[in-house]
Amino acid sequence: KPYVVSTPQIETCDLKNDDLIILASDGVWKVMSNEQVAEVVMGALQYKIEEIDKRYPCHPHLRNKQPDGKVVEGGSNAMLERVARVLRDEAYIRGSNDNISAILLRIQSNQ
């Protein structure tokens, strides 16, 4: 079995207001390319929060692993949390057998 490499993949780019940063564990990146992750995230973001829950129901095997904390419905954080869940579930469906974590961060200007 290959060892875990502690050298991160680092890329630099200029970020604009309203860009997204996707932080995900190797459980996502082992089964999906950068382009596939972007397609899943951007595809889910086109829907309203209620539509995401209908179109992308939580995978039955992962239901008991939902966070216990309450999320304020309708806020941008709630939307990003739902889309991160969609990405997590997609990695699981594609056969990931590693730890799967995903966080989405939206870049917002203070101006």
Secondary-structure class: mainly alpha
Strand content: 5-15%
- Relative helix content: 25-40%
Strand count, sense and barrel status of the largest sheet are:
2 strands, antiparallel
Tell me the span between the first and last alpha carbons. 49 Å
- List low-pLDDT spans: 68-74
- Report the principal-axis shape: flat
Number of helices: 4
Describe this structure as you would to a colleague.
- With 111 residues, this protein is mostly helical.
- Helix content is 37%, strand content 9%.
- The chain contains four helices and two strands, in the order E-H-H-H-H-E.
- It has a two-stranded antiparallel sheet with strand order 1-2.
- Helix 2 packs across helix 4.
- It is flat.
- It starts with 19 loop residues before the first strand and ends in a 5-residue tail after the last strand.
What does the secondary structure layout of this molecule look like, with pairings?
Blueprint: E1 20-24, H1 26-29, H2 34-45, H3 49-55, H4 76-93, E2 102-106
Antiparallel strand pairs: 1-2
How would you summarize this macromolecular structure in one to three sentences?
This protein is mainly alpha-helical and 111 residues long. It contains four helices and two strands; from the N terminus they run E-H-H-H-H-E.
